[in-house]
Amino acid sequence: MKILLPYLTVKNANSLIDYYNKIFGVQLEYKTTYGEMPRDDVGFQWSEDDDDLIAFASLKFPNGQLMYLSDSFPGSSEIENSNVSLYIAFDDKDEIKRVFEELASEGEVLMELENTFWSELFASVKDKFGIEWNLEYTTKIPEISKVVENPRH
Hints:
Oligomer: single chain
Shape: elongated
Helix content: 10-25%
Mean pLDDT: 84
Strand order of the largest sheet: 1-4-3-2
């Protein structure tokens, strides 16, 4: 396996991009809308009203990590409670507090930002798009570079 990336399928992906840019500072690396795709070559149809929906986008976080996303296919239903959440390890207490507050302001707090037995600070928040975020600040997590270099240790 070369890489594992989160891929979100949401309603109103353009708003999600703006929202995550405000909170996390993501940059839009690539975007294709349904209107930019050849209608006859993709094997499915959509109305011209859906041409501005995102068929695929790539976001880059300030640390270089990528996230893929798209709008829900027109006419499809979203699966709620898909048991997927996104986890962010923070190395700055002020940053985790800021991100928690911004996500919580328009989302649903599942667990308040607090000290736990496993972490100096931990919180769980469902954002306004229904995406669950687990936020953690701890000095107990090994540096990610060491984990990536030798994932079995």
